[in-house]
Amino acid sequence: MRALRRSGPELVVVLLAVVIFVVPFSFMVLTAVKDEVQSAELDFGWPTSWPIVQNFVEVIEARDYVLLRAFLNSTILTVVAVTLLVVFCSMAGFVLQRRAGRMRSVVNFLVLSGLIIPPAIVPTIWVLQTLGLFKTLPGLIFVEVAFHMSYSVLLYRAFVAAVPRELDEAAMIDGCTGFRLFFKVIFPLLRPVTITVILTTSVAVFNDFVNPLYFLPGDENATVQLTLYNFQSQYSTQWNLLFMDIVLITIPPLLAFIFFNRKIVAGMTAGAIKG
Amino acid sequence: MTSSRPSTATSPEPPTAAAGRRARARNGKGGRGGNPYPYLFYVPAGIVYTIVFLVPTIMAFYFSMTRWTLFDSTFVGLENFTDFFAEQNLRIGFQNTLIYAVTTSGLKVVLGMALGVLLTSRIKLRGFLRSVVFFPVLVSTVAVGITFSVLLKPDTGLVNKALALVGISGPDWLGDANTALLSVALVDVWKGVGLATVIYIAGMMSIPRDYYQAVAVDGGGAWHRFRFVTLPLSWPATNSVIILSFIGGLRSFDLIWTMTRGGPGFTSDVIASIIYKQYQAGFFGLSTAGNVILFIVVTALVVPLTRFLSAREVAA
Predict the structure, then answer these.
(1) What distance in Å separates residue A49's CA from the closest CA in chain B?
(2) Is residue A43 one of the residues assigned to a domain?
(3) What are the domain boundaries of chain B?
(4) Residue A253 and residue B140: Cβ atoms within 8 Å?
């Protein structure tokens, strides 16, 4: 009896969580593997036939393989943007933590501004247009780097604070300063926070919808999130393909989640509490 | 900071040489290689930040006062701003932004804290539940938006079918002007509450166990533990959750855009979606005025809020 009373509310809570959080995902997957007619019913019914491969092939081939190109674009975007973020922000976070002075308060102010201020969209387009970077992948890469910079600098600054200064001093005695000090001695020690920055910013950049919508519009160089947005209007009748697209796009974050759940959570909570 | 340290501690060199080097380091010039922490390190990040973020942010104030085609601009003073507030639809957007931000951040605090308490207790399947609650944070907003617009459809949608089972006839969540914005806000909470929860879990795990034992010694129960230990001591977590989700709520665009496009009519428009609509319509000056208004709203609310919350944190 006591066991029942203890596990009764528990059972309710677990059931609720499953319904609220698991049902939507099951719905995505189920709809993605149904045939066109059944998927149009948009209910939770068990699939009568399983055209998984066919749906997969159809969504890949749709509109002249736009999804493959989108995956390529998103991969390039994510890898390059995150690499630049790691290099630029670790350097900035290091000096920001180590070197006092008026410059430090200016930089701190700019970092916090970057966290709070919503980016001015059309003026950014104007700047990119002037530089010939509007509607180009490099342009979008710089946008992503700029908009995720503050968060990454804060994570690095916090972590550098835990690296003892004695280490710098020992290295300096061996004649290591500036770039050699940083890249030979400090940067390798920042590995844990570098992994955190890589994970959190790649999920954010890969999932980003707003910035590609503004700065890289058009079908020929779409990112994955935009294919979803474009399919939404085009495939109002082919729900199975739309949801197959959703499932495919959810796989990369799912993999990141399965393998690095703890790291991601640690990064996001640290960023939140420091920020 | 370096200079205040006794110089001989780590140095095998004669003290004078080490002190000299340190003095040079402090000046930031002279010596081989200059300062060990050169300002040059700010340059790559600084260039990108300045060109892509700072310049547009500052230029926005000028362009918001122009009629603008990207190639040339005519100065019109504050006309865009008066237009913005004169038009009923745009005023709604202003109001909705505030409602949306307050609702989402409020619910994320309450539900995040409740889930935090639950998932730090000795419940079975704790790890599984934590994962399940957190995963939506990593899923793309567009995917979540599309899925929920289907689940919330009036007749065929799963939500209304489930409600029908218990005898409630659910509304047309996204098609009704009264419920559209609120429905999107609830989906936003569904997607974002996982982040709030893990922030609370991190905060609650760092509360020393002694406090709970002290309550137990005084004969306090679960409610006392929550009211007098967990609640006050997880204040820093509450603080971050409020700030994070409030900023996010004010700037929110993608979920609203994928679920309602600001509709029906303009009833679920927020400032960010108006910025996009005016941009699409080619009113670049007006769109930028929207951006400036959003900028002012965010700073006018978030800066005092941060001050207020951190003052309370010190007090608590």
Answers:
(1) 21
(2) no
(3) 1-34, 88-315
(4) yes
Cα of first residue to Cα of last residue in chain A, in angstroms, is 48
Nearest by CB to B141, from A17, A127, A207: name it: A207
Whether A13 maps to a domain, the answer reads no
Other Cβ atoms less than 10 A from the Cβ of B26: the count is 14
Question: Spelled out in words, what is the top-level CATH class assigned to the domain B88-315?
Answer: mainly alpha
- For residue B68, give the H/E element and its range: strand B66-68
Number of domains in chain A: 1
**Distance (Å, rounded) from C-alpha A24 to C-alpha A256?**
20
CA distances from B12 to A170, B9, B106, B231 (A): 10, 8, 58, 52
- Residue B174, beta-bridge partner list: none
Chain B positions touching A106 (Cβ under 8 A) are none
3-state secondary structure B154-209: CCCCHHHHHHHHCCCCCCCCCCCCCCHHHHHHHHHHHHHHHHHHHHHHHHHHCCCH
Question: What tens digit of pLDDT does each residue of A197-225 get?
Answer: 999 999 999 999 999 999 998 777 889 99
Which whole number is the average pLDDT over A237-250? 89
Q: Is A75 helix (H, G, I), strand (E, B) or coil?
A: helix
Instruction: Tell me the ipTM for this assembly.
Output: 0.88
Helix (H) or strand (E) holding B66: strand B66-68
Cα of B82 to nearest chain A Cα, Å: 19
Please state, as a whole number, how many other Cβ atoms lie within 10 Å of the Cβ of residue B214: 14
Q: How far apart are the first and last CA of chain B?
A: 30
In this structure, how many other beta carbons lie within 10 angstroms of the beta carbon of residue A93? 27
Highest mean pLDDT among B4-13, B166-175, B188-197: B188-197
For residue A144, is it within any domain? yes
Residue B206, judged by CB atoms within 10 A of its CB (0-12, 13-18, 19+), counts as: exposed
Q: Is the separation of the CB atoms in A154 and A270 below 8 Å? A: no
Torsion of CA B151, A28, A249, A88, to 10 degrees: 60
Q: Which two tokens stand for residue B20?
A: 């000299």
Contacts of B56 in chain A (CB under 8 A): 119-120, 123-124, 126-127
Computed over every residue of chain A, the mean pLDDT equals 88
Query: Could you tell me the two tokens for A55?
Result: 């749906």
Best residue in A117, A135, A213 for a mutation probing chain B (most B CBs within 10 Å): A117
Domain of A178, in residue numbers: 66-274
For residue A98, the domain's CATH number is 1.10.3720.10
d(CA B169, CA B160): 7
CA dihedral B47, B52, B57, B61 (to 10 degrees): 110
Secondary structure (3-state) at B74: strand
